[in-house]
Design goal:
Layout (H helix, E strand, L loop, with lengths): L3 E7 L2 E9 L5 E11 L4 H18 L1 E3 L6 E5 L4 E2 L14 H11 L6 H19 L11 H13 L4 H20 L26 H10 L6 H10 L3 H5 L6 E2 L4 E4 L2 E7 L2 E7 L9 E4 L2 H21 L22 H14 L13 H5 L15 H21 L6 H18 L1
Antiparallel strand pairs: 1-2, 2-3, 4-5, 5-6, 7-8, 8-11, 9-10
Length: 423
């Protein structure tokens, strides 16, 4: 339950009146001085009250009214806890403890994949470096952070890796300053390295064709085919659903993704409808070669379900990319098995992500029938027809009303029908 309160006047000054409740629901009222005079400060006092209530719900601390400091308050008595029970100031916390607390607090506000990445960074390289130092939050200086970034480069990592750590530290310290745990953000004095240029390997049209041939009987064949034709991300291919494919209208919609999360030491797939960006949600034409493989996959799934019976997973029946037991194909399996596949057949090594290369996507243009290629938007044609007809109507009226209202309506209907039939 959220804590409530109000702003009250007393002896010409504003006070916070906070409603505190114990475990039995009994209310205790606590008055806290704002230090603000009544005249001209009502809005400021109300704004301060919202911040105080939010801070109390997060930490259980209320301002003392003396210099803006906070202290833990006992909800039963509405009085401060004894000094030995007062929590340690956030700035005095160990830096690693604060990091772990910060990532858990922000878990609900960031995407699952981002949380997994940040958590792995904290539990891995950051913990290895900062644990022996035993630094408090207030003791982390720009020099310490610079040395950490240099250590990453000395370990053989690229500047792109350093940028990832620079980003998470920037968010952590910015949040600490915003909440008044620190006065200065040390990351403002830490340089962000320039991003190194990465030149990935790409497949030519013939190499893609060879890859599709050797992977014909491989469990990743459908994933490879869809990625090569449409340039989808790994998470988007694995998130493709049967309900998003319209075989009648020959289209498929990309609006789900599958990522991976470590739970109790095991990696488990995570399904989400929150895509990487707005343009990631899109509808694409169903290419005949892909449609044929999709129908084969549907028949395989039905066959495996009959063979495995109760052992077949029914949790992912709507997903296209599943294994023989009906379970989702893991993203890490795609990466690892794709590399194994290239090694087995002696093909040039590329990342699975490199199948998204624009050249490969352009090769699909010759496969899409002309009748399915996008044409001029209907809205543009309708606006054009309206403008043309009204100009023609005004011109007709100016020369004596040769064209009547009826003939204008007939002309408009005929014009509209002509353009819409072409779409």
């Amino acid at each position: 339950m959220k804590t409530t309160g109000s702003v009250q006047e007393k002896n010409g000054r504003f006070y916070f009146v906070i409603n505190l409740y114990d475990a039995n629901g009994k209310r205790k009222i606590k008055w806290i001085s704002t230090g603000l005079t009544v005249r001209g400060n009502k809005r400021k006092a109300e704004s301060m009250l919202r911040e105080v209530l939010l801070h109390y719900d997060e930490t259980g601390e209320l301002p003392t009214g003396r210099g803006g400091t906070y202290e833990k308050v006992d909800a039963k008595t509405a009085k401060p806890l004894p000094q030995h029970l007062q929590p340690v100031s956030k700035s005095e916390m160990l830096f690693l403890d604060y990091l772990n607390e910060w990532i858990q607090i922000h878990k609900a506000s960031i995407q699952t994949a981002t949380f997994i990445s940040y958590n792995q960074m904290i539990q891995g390289r950051i913990t290895q470096y900062f644990k022996p130092l035993s630094l408090k939050l207030c003791e982390v200086t720009p020099q310490v952070l610079d040395e950490f970034q240099e250590k990453i480069l000395l370990d053989g990592c690229t500047t792109n890796t350093v940028i990832h750590y620079h980003a998470i530290f920037g968010k952590v310290f910015k949040d600490a300053v915003r909440k008044d745990y620190l006065e200065v953000n040390p990351m403002l004095k830490v340089d962000r390295p320039k991003k190194n240029s990465f030149r990935p390997n790409f497949y030519s049209k013939d190499e893609v064709q060879q890859l599709l041939e050797v992977s014909q009987d491989d469990p990743l064949h459908l994933c490879i085919l869809i990625t090569a034709y449409y340039g989808l991300r790994r998470s988007e291919v694995l998130g493709l659903k049967w309900s998003s494919i319209d075989f009648e209208r020959k289209s498929m919609t990309i609006n789900h993704k599958v990522t991976e999360q470590r739970v109790n030491g095991k990696y488990v797939p995570v399904v989400s409808d929150v895509m990487k960006n707005k343009t990631s949600c899109r509808t694409l034409p169903l290419i005949p070669a892909v449609e044929e493989e999709l129908l084969k996959q549907k028949e395989k799934q039905q066959l495996y379900r009959k063979l495995f019976k109760k052992s077949y997973s029914i949790e992912y029946l709507d997903f296209v990319c599943t294994d023989q037991e009906g379970k989702l194909i893991r993203p890490n399996f795609v990466t690892e098995h794709f590399d194994w596949l290239l090694t087995k057949y002696g093909l040039k090594h590329i990342r699975f992500h490199d199948l998204r290369h624009p050249y490969v996507k352009h090769t699909t243009k010759n496969i899409i029938p002309k009748s399915r290629k996008p044409k001029l938007p209907i809205l543009v044609l309708i606006v054009w027809v309206f403008c043309f007809c009204f100009l023609f109507y005004d011109f007709a009226r100016s020369i004596g009303g040769i064209i009547s209202i009826i003939s204008f309506k007939d002309y408009f209907c005929c014009s509209t029908a002509f353009f819409t039939t072409e779409i």
